[in-house]
Write a structure and sequence with these properties.
Layout lengths: L5 E5 L6 H9 L3 E5 L2 E4 L5 H11 L5 E4 L2 H13 L13 E4 L2 H9 L2 H4 L19 H11 L4 E7 L5 H8 L3 E12 L5 H8 L5 E4 L2 H11 L7 E4 L1 H10 L6 E2 L5 H13 L3
Parallel strand pairs: 1-2, 1-8, 4-5, 4-6, 6-7, 8-9, 9-10
Antiparallel strand pairs: 3-7
Helix pairs in contact: 1-11, 3-4, 6-7
């Protein structure tokens, strides 16, 4: 049922490895194409100042909502002569949105190098209106009461976490750690295959990716299933006027691929 199905995976080989592995294991054919690029902020001064304050222990918590944010923090810390993100935590605890963000932290050795900075707050995996950054507001507001929070975010992130913490009386400083920009245009043969309905499904993992795919390729044909990673992405996809055919039960790429494969097995 899945063998030979062609699935568009927006992203790079490094960021999409888990999706690619799961698709290949299911017999599908992944088409990995970058639609957005993650680049440093235009002004690095605010980020550098925030990292210095973090290292000096002036924040009780660091909140990160994406694996891209984790990588951006780590890369900038290294550019400043540190050995990575773990070296500048300054005793701060870490709050992560989603298992992918927590896994990115663990991959950098954050729990091992700074035991108190294990991503202790990871909202529940079940998709719900309170998941994502919104699901982090309550737990983090309770845990961080009386301390300051540094919120590391991308330039397109909604102010849900910042506004929620402010409303709860928690002092929070947000800093842009990366920007999301369009990648180079996709290959011409991919554009033709998309328009002709020769791509069986597309994996959409973030609102910015969904917008980039729509801008580059246009709406998906009826024959192309739209599979979304989590309720935030699904809501953004629907807001763009697109349908959502598959929604992952947990916010991980393997779970999204499993949901897609299960849909093909039983489309009801």
């Amino acid at each position: 049922m899945t063998a030979g199905r062609r699935v568009l995976v927006p992203g790079t080989a490094g960021s999409s490895v888990h999706a690619v592995d799961a698709l290949v294991a299911a017999g599908a054919v992944p088409l990995v194409v970058p639609f957005v690029s993650v680049v440093p902020p235009e002004q690095l001064g605010p980020l550098d100042a925030a990292l210095a304050a973090l290292e000096a222990g002036r924040f009780g918590w660091l909140a990160v909502t994406s694996a891209a944010g984790v990588r951006a923090l780590d890369e900038r810390a290294r550019a400043l002569g540190r050995t990575g993100l773990a070296a500048v935590l300054g005793g701060s605890r870490v709050a992560a949105v989603g298992s992918a963000t927590a896994a990115a932290l663990e991959a950098l050795g954050v729990p091992a190098l700074v035991p108190d900075s294990v991503p202790a707050l990871v909202p529940g995996p079940a998709p719900s209106p309170g998941s994502g950054a919104a699901g982090l507001v309550g737990p983090l507001a309770r845990a961080a009461r009386g301390s300051r929070v540094l919120f590391a975010r991308g330039d397109l992130a909604a102010p849900v976490l910042t506004d929620g913490l402010h409303a709860a009386g928690v002092e929070v400083e947000d800093v842009i750690v990366y920007r999301t920009v369009p990648a180079a245009p996709p290959p011409a043969d991919l554009v033709r295959d998309w328009s002709a309905g020769r791509i069986d499904a597309v994996l959409l993992t973030s609102p910015s990716t969904a917008r980039a795919v729509l801008d580059a390729l246009g709406p998906p044909p009826a024959a192309t299933l739209v599979a979304c990673l989590g309720p935030t992405t699904a809501a953004a996809v629907r807001a763009l006027g697109l349908r959502v055919d598959v929604l992952s039960p947990t916010p991980t790429l393997p779970a999204l691929v499993r949901a897609l494969v299960d849909h093909w097995k039983d489309p009801t």
